[in-house]
Write a structure and sequence with these properties.
Length: 342
Amino acid sequence: MNEPNSTHNAEMLGQSKSGIFGNRGKVVVFGAVSLGLLIWASAPIALFVGVLFAAVIGHPFLNKNRKITKWLLQGCVVLLGFSMDLPLVLRVGYHGILFTLITIVGILILGTWLGARLRIGARTSLLISVGTAICGGSAIAAVSAVIGATEAEVAVSIGTIFLLNTVALYLFPLAGHLLHLSQLDFGLWAGIAIHDISSVVAATINYGPDALQSAMAIKLSRTLWIIPLTLGIAYMYAKKASLNATNEGINKKTSIYIPWFIGFFLLASLLRSYVPIIATYSGLASHIARLGMVLLLFLIGASISVASIRNVGWRAMLSGIILWVFISIGSLIAILGLNLKV
C-alpha cells in the first residue's frame, strides 16, 4: 500500500527492532529466511513466515517492497504463460463472456448499494467493487488513476482486498477438498472468486496442475476487462464533472494503467503452444514461477504492519466481505448447481 502513515509506522517499528539484529543483521536474516523458503516452503507458508518476520524483526527494504512485488508478480505471470495452453486461454475468455459480464455488473451494482448504506466514500466503494469484480490490486490501481482517488482511499481499498486474499489463500483449498471439487472446477472457482492473481496462483498451485491452468486462464481473461471498464469509468467521471459545471477532470490528462504483462503472458502461451522447442522448457519456467511466488508471498507478508491493518475501517471491510461472499457463493452455485463450464 502507498498510505504514508502506515509505511512510516512500519518503518519506525522496524527501526525499533534494529537494535536486536542491527541493520546488516536484519538483511542477513532476511536473505537466509528467503533462501530457506525457496528451498522447502509453499506459498501459504511463505506468507505466514513473512507476517512473523515483520512482527519480530521488520522488513529491511520496506520502502522498495511495493515496486519489487509488483515486478515479481508480473514476471511470474509471464513465466506461467510458458506452461499455459493458449487455445484454452482464448476459449475460456470467449465462452465466459456472458458470465463475466453478469458477475462484474452484479458486483458493481451491489458495491454501489453497499457503499451508500454503509456510508463509505463513493470512490472507496468503487475501488473495492472493481477489485472484487476483476483482479484486486491491478484493477484498483487502474481505476484509481482515472477517478482521482487519494492515497488514503487506495490504501483502504487495497488493504481490504489484501486481507480477504490472505483468508482465501487458506480457506479455498480447504473448501475445495471438503467439497471434493475436481481440479478444473476448483480452478474455475478460484479464478472467479479470489481477487489478486498472486493469491489465485498460490491457492491453486498445490491443488494440481489442471487447477492452476484453468484458474490462470479464468483470472487473466477477466483481467482483460480492466481496459474497457477503466475507459468507461473515466468517461462517466468526466461526464459527471461536466454536469456539475466544473472543469476538474475534463481537461486533465489521465494515464490509464494497461496490464502489459497480460500481453506477454499471451505471447508466452503462443510460443509454448506452437514452438516445440520452447514447450520442452515449460516445466522449468513453471518451476521458476513457483519459486517466484514463494518469494512474492514472503515479501507481501513481511510488509504487513499492525498500523496497515488498523487503517482498514470496519465499514470498508464489511463491504468487501459481503461482495466477496456474494461472488464466492454465487460462482460456486453456478459451478456445482448449474454445471458452469468455460
